[in-house]
Specification:
Blueprint: E1 2-6, E2 9-18, H1 33-39, E3 43-44, E4 69-74, E5 78-83, E6 95-99
Antiparallel strand pairs: 1-2, 2-4, 3-4, 5-6
Amino acid sequence: MEKLYGRRGPVATIIAGDFNTDPTDPQFTGEKTFEIFERAGFLWAWKETPPEKRVTHKGKGRYPDATFDGFLTKVAPVSTTQVLPAMSASDHNPVALKITVP
């Protein structure tokens, strides 16, 4: 979690990482992580991105492609979110976020 500060204290909060869940995937309907963050005022940065453009973990066998890695932002409008070209160091694709700091 990263807090961005202005003269009067925190102005935005960003949480990033591998959540091992995707709020749009039916197999995770019982998972409440994103619901809890949403109630606290956070936005899921991938919300407006089509599923095929936000695959951060390629599916294998019976497991489909997924969006496990991402960002939650609070008071920091998202300009762009993107999956970067895969690296051989991980089974996850790297992701990037561009925000506007108020």
